[in-house]
Design goal:
Length: 645
């Protein structure tokens, strides 16, 4: 299969990339910046951006073509360059969550927890297992090396039934107008005792190992680490490969010690394959080209520099790169790879038998459309548990704010001055609950979106499970906070002492707090980042605030803005609280010299253009806005995941 030339201005990113990766081998993709390393990895794992056009090509495992990210996710792991975690969890809590959603549903809980302990020990995370993962700039957490090892533990430490994937072949395909890689596999036949040893070791490993995928992709696993930690990280990958996994990774500037750990290297330049083979064969290949690697020189640095395009000598460098790539394509190794890829491509069209599962049955990748290991209920329990842990916070600040409000408005009486002060305190109830909850949700939810996206596409849980759990996990928090706030401030201010009125206030303030939370969800789900959410949230809140009946009398709202007032939870909350406060008040102190006194609570409501008959209607509208904003937030999040797919 050859990529057809595009008659457009598209930039060719990958060109005729073919290759093969075997179980038990660590394959490293090397090249200078812009060589196409990450693009190749993204093309393999269905992670290319919409602007990247894949014209043709194939990914296959065991001779079975893989057509969707879900099918691949059920059989592989992808460790991204950025380590994305919920920073408020400890290392052990994070691994427990991974075990709950990624291990086969048939595995008992005690066996999952036992495996978590084993993984913590295997990857040297015992000392930091009870340490918070941390949030840069906010919460001090574990070190960079521990974070990277936690990433590997998350991806490869789960119990599952034994799986076997043989050779992973990179078939010819086209990205832009360039071939991309695919994968085909059949168990590689070995002779005698070697085959028995390897197979027995693999089965023992799978019996003891959280999803344990047979195929693993890593993007820049040593990024940001010093040479010592980088060596340790690659050693972990090497150990995984030696246990029978197929490990493919991109890597930037490996040390000579790290380079020596690789079983195979794929050198890329200008989107083409410059070499694919063992590190020793790479040195021999370039020696035969008349470009020997100097002694006492890091081969990785030498190859990358040799294949780089120097800004001042672009044309000359590109000619040299083309010569090297063409030479490898014509070499015995290059021809063998092309033949193997061609044979795999032909076999795919004639023999589509599927993935071998412990030598007992064949399961077609196409049939494994659902990547979720856990049931819907199990996903719900696990995500709810994690959301609850991450949302727990001390309510001391809420008490202090309520106490401050109570002191400022302490002991208000039913007088003309008291009417204005009480109404002001009531409106502050609403504004405090609104801004506090909206900004709390915008910061937390947006910051979790990258984690959600990665875990969702790794087949850990569904979008509806995540959104529903986030919603329900935060309900206790956003019920306790307004109850504490109202309980502290209500009687200090001197609001209506009737216990029924107090309970009504608790209900209304709690409803407003949760409507504001729902609004924050909506803003965070439609925003691409936290700064964007913070920049668009306040300008949208301000009009709702103005139509709350405190700054602008409801009777004087212009007709063309009436529709906007119907979406204002300030309007419904303020009207309900003011009615709750003043309804039934028959006497308000008045100065004899004041002819414009408000003598009753009814007069206060009339002045504000509030209708006493709207109390129940206001509460119903608050419930309606709560559901409305959350529904928009959910569909916005769903559209983002569908767009990514």
């Amino acid at each position: 299969m050859q990529g057809s030339a595009q008659q457009s201005r598209r930039k060719h990113i990958l060109k005729n990339v073919s290759g093969v990766a075997y179980p038990g081998e660590l394959l490293a993709i090397l090249g200078s910046s812009g060589a196409g390393k990450t693009t190749l990895l993204n093309a393999l794992t269905f992670r290319t951006t919409p602007s990247v056009v894949i014209e043709n090509g194939m990914r296959a495992l065991n001779g079975v073509p893989v057509y969707s990210s879900h099918a691949l996710a059920s059989l592989s792991a992808y460790v991204q360059q950025d380590d994305l975690f919920i920073g408020t969890l400890t290392v052990k809590e994070h691994l427990i969550f991974q075990a709950l959603v990624r291990m086969d549903r048939t595995i008992p809980y005690r066996q999952r927890m036992r495996r978590v302990e084993e993984v913590i020990s295997e990857l040297a995370l015992t000392k930091c297992q009870d340490t918070l993962i941390g949030i840069p700039g906010r919460i001090k957490g574990i070190s960079g090396g521990e974070t990277k090892r936690l990433s590997f533990a998350s991806e490869v430490s789960a119990l599952s039934s034994p799986k076997y994937i043989g050779r992973t072949r990179f078939l010819t395909g086209t990205l832009g107008s360039h071939p991309i890689l695919g994968a085909d596999a059949r168990p590689r036949k070995k002779r005698g005792l070697d085959s028995i040893k390897i197979h027995g070791f693999r089965k023992a490993f799978y019996r003891n190992v959280l999803t344990n995928p047979p195929l693993m992709f890593c993007d820049e696993p040593t990024s940001g680490l010093d040479s010592f930690m980088a060596y340790n990280v690659v050693s972990v990958l090497k150990g995984m490969a030696q246990r029978g996994k197929t490990v493919i990774c991109t890597i930037h500037q490996p040390s000579s010690e790290v380079f020596a750990l690789f079983d195979k290297v794929l050198l890329m330049a200008e989107g083409r394959v410059a070499f694919l083979g063992t590190p020793k064969d790479a040195c021999q290949f370039f020696l035969e080209l008349g470009a020997p690697c100097p002694s006492n020189y890091n081969p990785a640095d030498f190859f990358v520099q040799l294949l780089a395009v120097v800004p001042s000598r672009e044309e000359l460098c590109r000619q040299a790169v083309d010569m090297i790539c063409d030479t490898f394509t014509r070499s015995d190794a290059g021809v063998a790879i092309e033949k193997e890829a061609a044979a795999a491509s032909t076999k795919i069209t004639t023999d589509n038998k599927g993935i071998y599962i412990d030598g007992e049955s064949d399961i077609s990748i196409q049939d494994r459309r659902c990547p979720y290991k856990a049931s819907w209920c199990a996903q719900f329990r696990a995500v709810f548990w994690r959301s609850w842990l991450s949302m727990l916070k001390e309510p001391i600040l809420i008490k202090l704010v309520a106490l401050l409000l109570g002191i400022v408005y302490f002991g208000q009486e039913l007088s003309q001055e008291g009417v204005m002060n009480i109404n002001g305190a009531i409106f502050l109830f609403l504004t405090n609950m609104t801004f506090q909850n909206v900004f709390a949700v915008i910061n937390v939810f947006c910051s979790e979106l990258p984690v959600f996206m990665r875990e969702h596409f790794n087949g850990m849980y569904r979008t509806d499970v995540y959104f529903l759990c986030k919603t329900l996990a935060e309900v206790p928090i956003f019920v306790i906070i307004p109850v504490l706030f109202t309980s502290v401030a209500y009687y200090m201010i001197g609001l209506n002492p009737d216990p029924v009125r107090f309970i009504n206030t608790l209900i209304i303030v709690t409803l407003v707090a949760n409507v504001a939370t729902s609004f924050g969800y909506m803003i965070s789900c439609v925003s691409a980042s936290v700064p964007m959410a913070l920049s668009i949230g306040p300008p949208i809140i301000i009009p709702f605030l103005l139509f709350g009946g405190f700054f602008l009398n409801m009777g004087s709202v212009p007709v063309y803005f009436k529709w906007l007032s119907y979406l204002s939870w300030f309007k419904y909350g303020n009207e309900a609280l003011v009615i709750n406060q003043w309804e039934g008040i028959e006497s308000i102190e008045c100065d004899r010299n004041n002819n414009t006194c408000l003598h009753t609570g009814h007069a206060v409501l009339e002045t504000l253009s509030f209708d006493e008959g709207n109390f129940i209607f206001d509460i119903i509208c608050l419930f309606g806005l709560l559901i409305f904003f959350r529904a928009i937030g959910f569909f916005a999040l769903l559209m983002r995941t569908i767009g990514k797919e």
